[in-house]
Specification:
Helix content: over 70%
Number of strands: 0
Mean pLDDT: 80
Largest sheet: none
Distance between the termini: 70 Å
Order of helices and strands: HHHHHHHHHHHHHHHHHHHHH
């Protein structure tokens, strides 16, 4: 367990190592992050791979009856550095005593907080990271203080407290700039770009990403650069600049060092770009490339989302039977409530297939099921679209009064979320 230095030290932390960031939509959803400097990762990999026997002996020893908390902390740190948080972790059941050295207590609380974030126990995560921060401040371990600020920023971002997240990231940035840890400076600037992106400030986000990329270019941080290219692509995609978005995702894939999850994220976003720009065969190509990785990793959420996108592409190509087969399989499959994919999407698209084939009663039933699911998940915009579809079914069945009632419900919900485009569309439809 390497514990570091304070500001009075003349020692400077290595600056010529790469450092990955929070790059993947999947990882955003899973609430998992990477908080490390690359030279730590190299050490961890040596412990796990080059010194495989030592690592396996360590794994065995930490579960022995005569549990050594020092070994447990080392093992937990290796898992965190290698982003292997899904594995059984000794930190979960570790006990520390009054006699545990103060620096190791601080490490314990930090690692426990990171583990709590993985399990979405944000209240305990916040308590533990704050404890660690207080202890690291007392010890004068400023690098670890900055890591704690980043951990707190992640917690507040997940909680929707964007302003506090921004403040925590800036506190971390001040420290990393002071001690000249440029890999972490690039990482924090990239996180600040993500903050601006989520706030809808695309130009500000791009400025942060460009600042981070300058550091990456100077110090040859290839992996971080690939992640930032992905996020620049997301910004362009949100701004409907699909050609620019495509270039950035392809740049990410062209980087000589790219993580597996960054690669599958690029595949997914390219598939969405090609779907939006009606290059359907290319879209299917990248969907299948992404599916191959998700299926290998047994990532059910990723598989579901890409399968739904594949169904949308088949629908756009007029291949209704293939589209319907995928949708029915998605509905039949039992999904965990923690996944972001909702069967409501499948019900809606199946309803459109039935509507196209003039099977109005079945279409109405499917749209009603979709709207119920949207309302249950508080996805208002999706419910607006479903009510609009229900109005269309009623209109074709000749029930104008019911059609207007559904449109009125849709308009009320559109006003609730302040979607100007939907409000304009629904008002015109009601007045026609």
């Amino acid at each position: 367990m390497r514990l570091r230095f304070n500001f009075k030290n003349k020692f400077k932390y290595p600056t010529n190592e790469d450092n990955p960031i929070f790059f993947s939509s999947y990882y955003e959803k899973k609430i998992v992050g990477d908080f490390f400097v690359e030279d730590d990762v190299i050490l961890a990999k040596k412990a796990k791979d080059s010194l495989g026997k030592v690592f396996h002996d360590l794994k065995r020893d930490v579960w022995h009856q005569e549990f050594d908390y020092k070994k447990g902390l080392i093992y937990a740190k290796i898992l965190e550095l290698l982003n292997m948080k899904e594995l059984t972790n000794p930190i979960d059941n570790m006990k520390i005593s009054f006699f545990t050295p103060y620096p190791l207590k601080a490490c314990y609380y930090y690692l426990k907080g990171m583990r709590d974030i993985y399990f979405t126990d944000l209240s305990n995560a916040s308590d533990n990271v704050l404890k660690a921060l207080k202890m690291f401040k007392k010890l004068g371990y400023v690098y670890e203080c900055a890591e704690c600020y980043m951990g707190l920023g992640l917690i507040y971002r997940i909680c929707g407290a964007g302003d506090i997240n921004y403040t925590m990231l800036n506190e971390a940035l001040k420290i990393f700039e002071k001690i000249e840890v440029y890999a972490k400076v690039a990482e924090v600037k990239a996180y600040l770009g993500i903050y601006e992106l989520q706030a809808g400030n695309i130009n500000n986000a791009m400025e942060y990403f460009d600042e981070a990329l300058k550091i990456c270019k100077k110090y040859d941080f290839k992996r971080t650069a690939s992640d930032i290219f992905n996020w620049k692509g997301v910004g362009c995609f949100q701004d409907n600049k699909f050609d620019d978005a495509e270039k950035f995702f392809l740049k990410s894939l062209a980087c000589p060092v790219i993580k597996r999850d960054g690669k599958v994220f690029s595949y997914e976003m390219l598939a969405r770009i090609y779907y939006k720009t009606e290059r359907y065969d290319l879209s299917l190509k990248y969907v299948d490339m992404g599916l191959k990785i998700h299926q290998k990793n047994k990532n059910k959420q990723g598989v579901s989302e890409l399968m739904y996108l594949k169904a949308e592409v088949f629908w756009a190509k007029g291949l209704e039977d293939k589209c319907k087969e995928i949708l029915l399989n998605l509905i039949k499959d039992k999904h965990s409530t923690s996944l972001l994919y909702y069967p409501s999407n499948a019900y809606s698209l199946l309803g459109l297939i039935c509507l196209k084939n003039n099977d109005f009663e079945k279409a109405k039933n499917l749209f009603m099921q979709a709207s119920d699911l949207e309302n249950a998940k508080d996805r208002i915009k999706g419910a607006v679209i479903d009510y609009n579809n229900l109005a269309e079914v009623s209109s074709r069945l000749g029930d104008k009064e019911e059609a207007r009632r559904y449109l009125a419900i849709a308009l009320d919900k559109a006003l609730e979320i302040g979607d100007d485009d939907l409000i304009f569309y629904l008002k015109n439809k009601l007045n026609s």
